[in-house]
Write a structure and sequence with these properties.
mainly alpha; Helix Hairpins
């Protein structure tokens, strides 16, 4: 389930480091978090949708790897992002 264009633009504006920044770790993590939340709510209503579960797990793993990279390279940015996205440490 792709994100809506408006929602994606809002996330980009909130987490961009500079104009046209779409690939930095915080932006990628924020976009993945939104997709994960979307798929999680979808799976709550459609419990038997077995095809979506592997996609959700793949996104969670990708976000976890990006968070690990960010934690290793920039502790303060990692802590700020965790707080903004309301993720657990």
């Amino acid at each position: 389930m792709p994100l809506l264009k408006e929602k994606k633009q809002q996330i980009l504006e909130r987490f961009q480091r500079k104009l046209k920044d779409t690939g930095s770790s915080p932006v990628q993590i924020a976009l993945l978090t939104e997709r994960i939340q979307s798929l999680s709510s979808h799976l709550k209503t459609h419990r038997k949708d077995r095809a979506t579960q592997p996609a959700l797990l793949k996104l969670v793993g990708q976000r976890s790897r990006l968070l690990g990279y960010l934690r290793k390279h920039s502790q303060e940015e990692y802590a700020k992002l965790i707080e903004q996205l309301q993720l657990r440490k």
